[in-house]
Design goal:
About 75% of the residues lie in helices and about 0% in strands. With about 120 residues, the chain is mostly helical. The chain is built from 7 helices and no strands.
C-alpha cells in the first residue's frame, strides 16, 4: 500500500487519473492525491499500529471496496492504464478486487476477530 500510495502522488499519477470515473463529483486530481494519502496512512498503520491491526484491516478492505467503481469504469469505458490495454485484461482484473478485500481482512486478523465476536455472543 505504501508503494501504491507513493505512486498516486508521483510517478503513476497519470495512470491513476485514468481510473477516476467521470461521474465522481470531485476533481480527478484531488481524488488521486487523496486516495494516495489514504493508502500511505493505511500502509503505515499496517506496519506501526499493531494494536489497531483489525480496525486497519477493516479500513483497508473498505478502501478496496470504495475504489472498485474506478476499476469498473476503466473496464466499461475501455481505458488503458497500468498495462491493461484490452477489455479482457481489464475484465479479469475485476476479479482480483474481492481477493484484495479478503486479503486485507485475513492478513490483519479482522475476519477472525469478527467471527470470534459472533461466537462469543
Amino acid at each position: 500500500m505504501l508503494l501504491a500510495g507513493a505512486g498516486h502522488l508521483t510517478w503513476a499519477r497519470t495512470e491513476f487519473l485514468a481510473q477516476v470515473p467521470k461521474w465522481v463529483p470531485l476533481d480527478a486530481d484531488f481524488v488521486v492525491l487523496a486516495s494516495g494519502v489514504v493508502e500511505l496512512v493505511l500502509g503505515a498503520a499496517l506496519i506501526f499500529a499493531r494494536r489497531l491491526r483489525t480496525q486497519v484491516g477493516w479500513a483497508a478492505a473498505a478502501f478496496f471496496v470504495a475504489i472498485f467503481p474506478g476499476n469498473i469504469s476503466q473496464y466499461v469505458n475501455g481505458i488503458s492504464a497500468f498495462g491493461l490495454d484490452t477489455d479482457r485484461a481489464r475484465f479479469i482484473r475485476l476479479f482480483f478486487q474481492p481477493v484484495l478485500v479478503a486479503c486485507a481482512l485475513w492478513s490483519t486478523g479482522a475476519w477472525a476477530a469478527y467471527r470470534a465476536s459472533k461466537r462469543s455472543k
